[in-house]
């Protein structure tokens, strides 16, 4: 037999595609040719596979070997094809009877000594195989717990090429995946630690309940960073679909913690202000990798000292904030990553940033305007909640331990508000108020009466808010009503939404 075929999975972004790895051995000068749009890492598989086969005690066929990866029009990236290439090559040479591998997806990178090493992106690969009806997969032992997360798929693991060979020849058992370890329970930051700042706490709660973006402006020590870091503590745990999306993204990025479990807690990303555009939105050579905005999918992206970020980095966030996805086009191919995150910006009002507040500011009006102008109008227009924090008073600081409300109490209200919104928007494809398209809220049955929106209409007509700002204030009003247990927003809810958006309510 000179032809053999096994199954593997290729990734483009977080989308997996079933790939057939074909091997054809013909007479002629010894050579190995790989076709099917392989990248550099895949081209180098020729040398890795040859050394691994020989060092595993198998005979290398000195013939002309053609390896083809179907579909040939799909770009192939990475080293996850090594183990499948070795199996197809040994099957084509007659060394292995491949009947036991029929309908089995094989994933893994080979070391020169024949060891099978873990690879990135195994979870979305196995998920793609399951969608294609594959019921059995073989993965590196280091990825076994991660792969076993996908239901309906029988996962087995190998640590060496030799173990795979003995399984095919003799039926020797493969390695069972370990049981998933529970996520460790840690205390984490709590809202009870935040002194005073009732407006900031209210803004944080509204943002959490509706999935709204948030900007916090105030002097050093006012609690901007403390509030932002405690936002995940009042967000509900991720449901199965969201947890699978988040875990798949972290798998592709190689950031999954050990233990083989779905990530249930909303992720929190806080890049330094020197972060580059690719690190924020995604990039890298070849196929672009996910950036911080995608790694914060279904969670929080916190930009502390936001005016210190480069203008290009901040402006690059505008498109994913609007659409919840980021499309990256690179010379090695284009890809798309989900990026439905809550953005939280924190900024001092000026460069001198006196802790006592604006009364002691040493900056000229021009310097203050230039500093905050680094946050462009189009970017801020996408931020639903924008609040200014005042310096903390001594009384608030000393009374915090006895009077501040803990995250658990706020989280209960946030969860109830999200359930109300999800029930209301059932059938629309959205679950959060922040996701509802503006036209949907401006038509019956969700259009608010004129007596409740008179102030808001006046601001739109005067040009003090944009049409986008109008829609975002209406969304905020619905979230406020959900938090307070009302079926529809009233005039007071709209006025509070205006205050949270603009800093004044009249």
TrEMBL record:
**Keywords linked to the UniProt accession:** ATP-binding, Nucleotide-binding
By its UniProt entry, which InterPro entries does this protein fall under?
AAA+_ATPase (IPR003593), CHLI-like (IPR045006), MCM_dom (IPR001208), Mg_chelat-rel (IPR004482), Mg_chelat-rel_C (IPR025158), Mg_chelatse_chII-like_cat_dom (IPR000523), P-loop_NTPase (IPR027417), Ribosomal_Su5_D2-typ_SF (IPR020568)
Coiled-coil parts of chain:
none
Record Pfam families = ChlI, Mg_chelatase, Mg_chelatase_C
Task: Pinpoint the MCM C-terminal AAA(+) ATPase domain residues.
Answer: 274-349
Q: Has the keyword rRNA processing been applied to this entry? A: no
Keyword Nucleus attributed: no
The superkingdom of the source organism is Bacteria
Q: Which PANTHER family match?
A: COMPETENCE PROTEIN COMM, MAGNESIUM-CHELATASE SUBUNIT CHLI
State the similarity comment: Belongs to the Mg-chelatase subunits D/I family. ComM subfamily.
Name it: YifB family Mg chelatase-like AAA ATPase
What is the native source organism of this protein?
Micromonospora vulcania
């Amino acid at each position: 037999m000179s032809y053999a075929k096994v199954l593997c999975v290729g990734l483009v972004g977080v989308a997996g595609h079933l790939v057939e790895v074909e091997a054809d051995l013909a007479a002629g000068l010894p050579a190995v040719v790989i076709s099917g749009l392989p990248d550099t890492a895949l081209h180098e598989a020729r040398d890795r596979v040859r050394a691994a086969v020989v060092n595993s005690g198998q005979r290398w066929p000195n013939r002309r070997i053609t390896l083809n990866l179907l579909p040939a029009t799909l770009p192939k990236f990475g080293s996850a094809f090594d183990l499948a290439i070795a199996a197809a090559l040994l099957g084509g040479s007659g060394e292995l009877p491949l009947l036991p591998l029929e309908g089995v997806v094989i994933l893994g990178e080979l070391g020169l000594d024949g060891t099978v090493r873990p690879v990135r992106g195994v979870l979305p690969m196995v998920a793609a195989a399951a969608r294609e009806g594959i019921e059995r997969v073989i993965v590196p032992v280091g990825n076994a717990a991660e792969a076993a997360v996908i239901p309906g798929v029988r996962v087995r693991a190998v640590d060496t090429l030799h173990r795979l060979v003995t399984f095919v020849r003799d039926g020797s058992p493969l390695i069972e995946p370990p049981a998933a370890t529970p996520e460790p329970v840690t205390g984490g930051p709590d809202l009870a630690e935040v002194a005073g700042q009732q407006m900031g706490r209210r803004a944080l709660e509204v943002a959490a309940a509706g999935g709204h973006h948030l900007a916090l402006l105030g002097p050093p020590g006012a609690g901007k960073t403390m509030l932002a870091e405690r936002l995940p503590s009042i967000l509900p745990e991720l449901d199965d679909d969201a947890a699978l999306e988040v875990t798949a993204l972290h798998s592709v990025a190689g950031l999954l913690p050990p233990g083989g479990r779905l990530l249930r807690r909303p992720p929190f990303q806080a890049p330094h202000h020197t972060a580059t555009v690719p690190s924020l939105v995604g990039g890298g050579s070849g196929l672009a990798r996910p950036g911080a905005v995608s790694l914060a999918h279904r969670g929080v992206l916190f930009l502390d000292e936001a005016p210190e970020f480069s203008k290009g980095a901040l402006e690059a966030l505008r498109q994913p904030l609007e659409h919840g996805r980021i499309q990256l086009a690179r010379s090695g191919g284009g890809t798309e990553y989900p990026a439905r995150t809550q953005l939280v910006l924190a900024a001092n009002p000026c460069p001198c940033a006196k802790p006592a507040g604006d009364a002691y500011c040493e900056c000229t009006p021009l310097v203050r305007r230039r500093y905050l102008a680094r946050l462009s109008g189009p970017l801020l227009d996408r931020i639903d909640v924008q609040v200014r924090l005042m310096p903390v008073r001594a009384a608030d600081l000393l009374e915090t331990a006895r009077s501040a409300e803990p995250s658990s109490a706020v989280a209960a209200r946030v969860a109830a508000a999200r359930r109300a919104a999800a029930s209301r928007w059932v059938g629309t494809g959205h679950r959060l108020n922040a996701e509802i398209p503006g036209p949907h809220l401006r038509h019956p049955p969700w259009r608010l009466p004129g007596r409740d929106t008179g102030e808001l209409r006046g601001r739109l007509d005067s040009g003090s808010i944009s049409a986008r700002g109008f829609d975002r204030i209406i969304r905020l009003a619905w979230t406020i009503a959900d938090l307070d247990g009302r079926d529809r927003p009233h005039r007071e809810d709209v006025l509070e939404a205006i205050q949270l958006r603009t800093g004044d309510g009249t």
